[in-house]
Amino acid sequence: MTSPLSGVKAGDIDYVILRENSEGLYAARGAGALLRGEVAVDTLVQTRAGIERIVRKAFELARQSNGAPRDGVRRVTCCDKANVLRSYAFFRSVFDEVAKDYPDIATEHALVDAMAMHLVLKPGHFNVIVSENMFGDILSDLAAATVGGMGMAPSAEVGDAKGFFQAAHGSAPDIAGKGIANPYGTILSRRPCSTGSAADMTTKGCAGPPNKSAV
Description:
By secondary structure, this protein is an alpha/beta fold. The protein has one domain: Isopropylmalate Dehydrogenase (3-Layer(aba) Sandwich). The protein is built from five helices and nine strands; from the N terminus they run E-E-E-H-E-H-E-H-E-H-E-E-H-E. Strands 5-4-6-1-9-7-8 form a seven-stranded mixed sheet, with helices on both faces. A hairpin with a 3-residue loop joins strand 2 (33-35) and strand 3. The chain is globular, with a radius of gyration of 17 Å.
């Protein structure tokens, strides 16, 4: 069977994944509860302020972009699990509210399980994808694999005034000094914003093809 990615050429995949990096399920890191070795509980936290901030960033990035490779449409995709969990339904509702301020940008919703398939079957459809923290973390690793692996994907963690830029995989101390590290993701994380493609938005608070971007 032929892979759906077998005919993909350079430039056919060019999108940004944004994840809200201070909330979501990861907000429970170090604070969950384990009861008598029988029950474990972590809390997923989503606030209107946090969701609106990351969603507005997504729309602003879409405005700066050249649109999706397949059709040139400037599009923001909200990735969630709104059909199951109230917290994700809330994420979607805030997304829809913010979208009204950007009538020039196309919008759509995608459930995270379906999204994992879409990133393989039709990656050229996507322009900017916005999601909760954990979903963005998982999907950006999958997305990196579609363009050659984690070493090929840049990332940015951006606040109101400061940013941290690195390859999506983070550090790789296990191969230090061996001369085999791939610097592409690190270099691309600092690539100047010039052409309007996803790969060129890094210094504006995002990252390139496809990436982990957190606000």
